[in-house]
Request: fold
Amino acid sequence: MRTKTLRTVFLATTLLASPALANKVFVSNERGNTVTVLDSATWEVLAEFPAGNRPRGITISPDGSELYVCASDDDLVRVFDPETYEELHTLPSGPDPELFVLHPSGNPLYIANEDDNLVTVVDTETRQVLAEVPVGVEPEGMAISPDARVVINTSETTNMAHFIDTESYEIVQNVLVDQRPRYAEFTTDGAKLYVSAEIGGTISVIDLTGETPEIAKKITFEVPGVQSEWLQPVGVKVTSDGSRVFAALGPSNRVAVIDGETDEVIKYLLVGQRVWQLGFTPDEKYLITTNGNSNDVSIIDVEAEEVIRSVQVGQQPWGVVVAPD
Amino acid sequence: MTKARASGGWSCPRILRNGAIGAISLALTSLATLPASAQEVRSAVLRVDYPSLLPLSRLDLPVEDLGLAGAAVGTEDNATTGRFMGQTYDTVTRAVPPGDLAAAFEELVGQGIRLFVVLAREDELLALADAAPADALILNARSGARSLRSEECRANLLHIAPSDAMRADALVQFLVWKKWTDLFLVHGSNPADLALADAYRAAARKFGAEVVGEREFEDTGGSRVSDSGHVLVQRQLPVFMQDTPDHDVVLAADGTDYFAEHLPYNLWEPAPVAGATGLVPVSWAPTHESWGATQMQTRFEKHAGRTMREEDYQAWLAVRVIGEAVTRTGAADADTIRDYVLGGEFELAAFKGQPVTFRTWNGQLRQPILLSNGRMTVSVSPQDGFLHQRSPLDSLGLDEPESACTAFE
Reply:
């Protein structure tokens, strides 16, 4: 596999003026029960491998050696070798794991269990459950602060962002947001937290620089000719310099581009159908969107803020992660 | 169950190896999760049990905790949120025969309860609404009666259950979308059946379908099921359905569950059946899985040991409406809750893919309607292309100009 990747890189560098580093892009296909692997230099499909039942949340270890997939209907996390696509082992997750976040060091893994109102903390080395943290009803979105002191969980029916202390596993703060919060994303400097509310149709911008977290602004969306009910923010990604925020707007088939300074929407990019989650390449040149109802991913040129192409993947793509350099 | 687990988890957080300790601007230690004094939210769920025969299908056999189980899960959901807000929820549940309703209501009012979720028919709902103290609020979780949303509306009565008109509109929209617009209407002879027939006629007029013919299936009483009764049904029903004008679909208006289940495959002409059986417009189906509904189903099944019915969903939703209003306003009195839910701020996620809100002209909860074949969700209305200047959801049921309600002005 490695030689093939290298060959691709070689090919790419000879064709293009600026050399592009190829990274593997892993897309979980919720319905297809597979993970599709793409090459970030050529956007060709390298492989598609079985990933358990109803794979949704997907992430990769900081050293790129382990790929984690929430196999929701198997009630566990499956761990794959990103080179051979062999399953290495599984991790206990609690029932119906949907989304998770990895500690920046690669250990532990914080998992949202939708059916049990719990966040499960799992040691990725010993494969032991370290803690179960009771949260609101239907926990979903997970994020960890850049300094790793706080894990965020959003609960879809309680409509809160829960701030969990990573040392004590106690909830230290709750922020009420709009209906059905799906995803949480910190800025790299840890000053802001973006929380999307799918049914509420908003993204709450939570200011973390004060004594307590405060909602500084709610970003709303408006596209001429699209019913406001369908502008449902789900996945959110922020560039590492904080200048741009991208939000997947679900059934409206759009990704909103938001100015990270003013938190105002700058433009909307038309992507595939039911756009769900987003993933940057490590150099942040590209953003990949999973489009659940058109069975493809759209590739966004981040600097140009344009969709440059779409690539067919497996059935009902859900999550995406790109291997580190 | 949830609470027990929750408290267990709270008491024994375990420490992991230390990660990076940076300077986060949050003053973590100074933040308290629970306010010192808790606010108690008291409400009651009242279900009226009417004398009735057994249903046509064993799958619909009555269950003891119908509706009440949904309310219990809703209360649990509210309590989980309340834990973070410093609010506790106390929901009293009662199931009474119609004759005992007034006394039960009076007793609960006497205990200071002012928030009521009621599963009853039109007459009993009106009696309660008229007998209620001025500072009480009643949420209708069962009746679809048109008059309650029109000339007989009450300012203290909000409707969580969809109206008959919403259901009929949802179904006819789908049939029009399919271009199956010639409808043959078979209705029962009881008042509830006739009301449904009216709703279907109105829906056909509204969306450009045509009721090409009608027939009444008279309720002659008797038991619903007899041993090898299918033999007679197979011979008699086709004859009853003979000599009909050409039609695409048979619409069954059977609000009292005595004949519709027999129609599919027993017609004279081959045609799909919709309405009370076949393709059925519902607020909830135990098979519904979209928009996170699977989580609701499993949560309910774990609690009740059975699947979730419409009455359970409607009671759950009513209790959640109260909970959401309490969470957002910090108040637990009926006036504040009513003002909040009828105001512009209120919206609630209800596993239907878009927020549910209230119509300010008659207190009806706007909601998508599922079209279920009993095994799967076939479609969800409003259908594409049925537009409305306010919200596509307002293409279902009594729109503002159609409703004679003035109590909300």
In short: Helices of chain A lie at 2-15. Residues 22-322 of chain A form a domain with the Methylamine Dehydrogenase; Chain H fold (CATH 2.130.10.10).
